Amino acid sequence: MTQNQARKQRVREDVAAREQTRKAAQKATPATTETANPFAEWVEAYYNEPVLFAADMLKFECLDYQKAPLMALADGDRRIAITSGHGTGKSTVVAIAMIWFLLTRYPCRVVATAPTLAQVDSVLMGAVRSFINQLPPALQDLLEVQRDRVFLKAAPDEAWMAARTARAENPEALAGIHAAHVLLLADEASGIHDTIFEHAIGSMSGHSAHTMLTSNPTRRTGFFYKVFNDPLASVDWRKFRFSCRDSDLVSAEFIKQVEDTYGADSNQVRVRVDGLFPTEDVDIFLSGTLVQDATTRDIQVEPAAPAVLGVDVARMGADRTAICLRREQVVEEIRSWAKKDLMQTTGLIVAYIQALPPEMRPVEVNVDAIGMGAGVADRLNEVFREKGWTITVNSVNVAEAATADDRAHRLKDELWLRAKDWLEQRDCRIPDETDFIDDLLAPGYEFASNGKIKIESKDDMKRRGKKSTDLADSFCLTFAGFGAGLLRGNRRSWNEPIKRNLKGVI
Fold first, then answer.
1. What sign does the CA torsion over 135, 139, 141, 143 have?
2. CATH code linked to domain 49-252
3. What pLDDT, in 10s, does the model give residues 226-250?
4. pLDDT at residue 55 in the model
5. Which CATH architecture best describes the domain 307-487?
6. What whole-number distance in Å separates Cα of residue 306 and Cα of residue 319?
7. Nearest to residue 10, comparing CAs of 36, 44, 59, 61?
8. Side-chain-side CA neighbours of residue 179 (13 Å)
9. Most buried residue, 32, 78, 161, 457, by CB count within 10 Å?
């Protein structure tokens, strides 16, 4: 049997299965006249034509590079992987594949996953819901659309798609999916733990079972990296690359900005623009675009907005003691100094606060308590009481467990994640200071064995030639009160002390 004959046979089998379901429904609710399956011809027309389906049914014209993996799926390729720069429309390809597969295969299971809830809900299912709204009314009427699930109304258990978050502690996201037709999709696959893919193997046993992986190639480890770089793991995978340089969706200004910021030969350009894996064995935690954009916004805060001061105390001669003053959505100032003892450091912090206008003085000071920091926090408490200042001093041990964010391995990682979340709101402003920006962009990250994020340690950064991120750490410490408020179940008062019930943290 030729490949074309095999495709036609699959179409006939699907149509026959749908006809059986229709007749079963008619027996439950008898009709006055028998009619042929109205979608048989439609299914045959689009069974092998996802690109035509997108144009006719979803009103979306695929770009040439988007067409290639969709047609590979239609041709029966079981394993498809896509690396991509930013903004090239890889998630759009996933959404088109999900809807097309659901409407043209029967019975079928379509399961999509991503590392975070935001990627699954806002990006993947957001695109699916938007595209379904473009379908002709007759097709829309076939589907029941829920937040994380879409299914055929006439056969909810036989033909459906679902979106699930992929986490190491929940490795069953892609496991146990069995039907005549199965499509598993993983967006941002570079960030998905290998355990997830190991559990997915059993779902790929059928004759019409397909996997599609898409991601910015941010990591040089893990399953997604092996698909493109390991000769054994890459067998039978159809691999594609979406470069920003080939995309009408990405502006030339964006490409130039990334090149000017990091250099044309940098890893950031390789990953964010060209869709290539980095040459260094490190995953950068904050993107340059995210950080750089925050330096250009015209954001103002109310005069009465409370301020918080983060203090990262130097632990050794080469490091700096750094302070960061933040008022809600604006980082007002970053300062640092080196080679000062405990008393000198305390005196400089007190002098700094005393020189601020009254409305700019912090209502809380968060001090990293590891090493000399504990002594600085204790002495600041004494000085503030002597001066009659109502400033809360929080001694924060960043080596403790995370308080309120199940993404984070330790409190340090949680504070960096809080800072990233703050930047990703895109309604904030930070100083355009080279040292501060370099600090923010320096650390990499990895996933602990439990799937939680670990920010690269200062010692590891120094081993690969990066300086200590003291300025960025002081900025992250300004978010130390946020997790404590969540821990108590309500929004914390700016004047309320942190209570973590953890040793070394007040």
1. negative
2. 3.40.50.300
3. 999 988 888 889 999 999 999 999 9
4. 96
5. 2-Layer Sandwich (3.30)
6. 29
7. 44
8. 22
9. 161
